[in-house]
Amino acid sequence: MEKVIVLLSGGMDSLVCAxxxxxxxxNVYALHLNYGQKTSAREHISFDEICNHYKIPLExxxxxxMTFLQQIGGSSLTDENIAVxxxxxxxxxxxxxxxxxxNSIILSLAVSWAEVVGATKLYIGANHEDSxxxxxxxxxxxxxxxxxxxxxxxxxxxxxxxxxxxxxxxEIVLKGKELNVPFNLSxxxxxxxxxxxxxxxxxxxxxxxxxxxxxxDPIDYQQA
Length: 224
Prior knowledge:
The protein has a single domain (about 5-185), classed as Rossmann fold (3-Layer(aba) Sandwich). It is about 40% helix and about 10% strand. The protein has helices at about 10-25, 40-55, 70, 100-115, 140-150, 170-180, 200-215, and strands at about 5, 25-35, 60-65, 120-125, 160. A 5-stranded parallel β-sheet has the order 3-2-1-4-5, sandwiched between helices. Helix 1 packs across helix 6 (about 170-180) and helix 6 crosses helix 7 (about 200-215).
């Protein structure tokens, strides 16, 4: 039975990936990374609740501490001296919410765990179409990383899957509805852990996606 790992941040994109993975595979593992983000405690809750929803057993869940990224800083998500900005509209400029080289570290840890448990596929909810300029959300980045995995692992048989990478947020919402994923358990806000702010990049893109899909977002916002 093929083993797969879902990189589950707790956001809507990774949630839809979890829906796809559990639909297509019976042996699903879930990985969560705490990289010192400002909403880490709330994202942890979403991870646990989503895993419970999909009945992923505790022995197939892992949370890895990456809080050393706080020491490096350089991102509004990890550095207390940089405020999380409100959404200013679509842009190809790399925003200060970009965590330098984060996804490469995350993927390296995921591949390490995959080698240990014998998983051959890694699902990640990277999204290029609606992401505001993140360099590690480009399709070419994942193509390159898959080459690194092939060269740098024992069997060379682990593959990163990015099923939502070219979808608009509207399409991700619609796919989630089709899969009947529990959007109410997901968390997208960069800024707040009590009630989603409705103003940061991640909240704004999520709100727009649900609006364009004609579906009510089941979470509450401070301002939307």
